[in-house]
User: Fold these one by one.
Assistant:
Number 1:
Amino acid sequence: MKFEIEILNKKTNPLIERSELEIRIDHFGEPSPNRLEIRKKIAGMEGADEKLTIVRNISSHFGASHSIGKVNIYKNGEDLKYFEPFHIQVRNLVKEKRSEIYKLRRKNEKYEHLFEYE
């Protein structure tokens, strides 16, 4: 899939030790890219750890060839676990890990080891 990412706004939050990015994703003639592809490309652009990069949301309009998104890049996993909601953390994992986490959570078993930033 071919897409380009442009950083519209970059803000550093020193209290939480994270960078907050607003991005525009151009994907002319293609569907919107998934979170994992965006996460990988942003981490490469910013020189950040892919495991500590979280795509908060992606907004697309029907028929548009671009999407707008928000991304947070953390310095450490502890801050990420504290400030990001559980469902956002899970959305930024591969499909197999997501289903495994939800299965273990329903059984009230430990699932924290499946997150990559542990």
Number 2:
Amino acid sequence: MPIYNFLDKPRKAERIHDGQGLCPHANIVPPSGFETPIRFLNYTILPPGASIGPHGHGDDNELYIVLDGSGRFEVNGESSPVKKGDVLLNPRFATHALYNEGDVDMPILVLEAYNK
């Protein structure tokens, strides 16, 4: 029985989808860890002022689960405030982005599922 701890996983600081700042990021569960149409589970930390830049996907859904902090979520040009505890759905074929506009880190879990 595999057990993954996202807090213990080594992270690499990266710009994500040409967003602002460097965001410590780790792949927690790779595609081979799933028996369903899920591509990955990632852990990403957006420092204050950092963002996941606007980008699109195809025929899949992506979830951002906000573990702490606050900011703004954008989908197809529409923007909404977000905070700790929010689960954000990136719809199929949509362009989306996430911005940390708060004073503390915004750690998130990112899960992507696709149609087979």
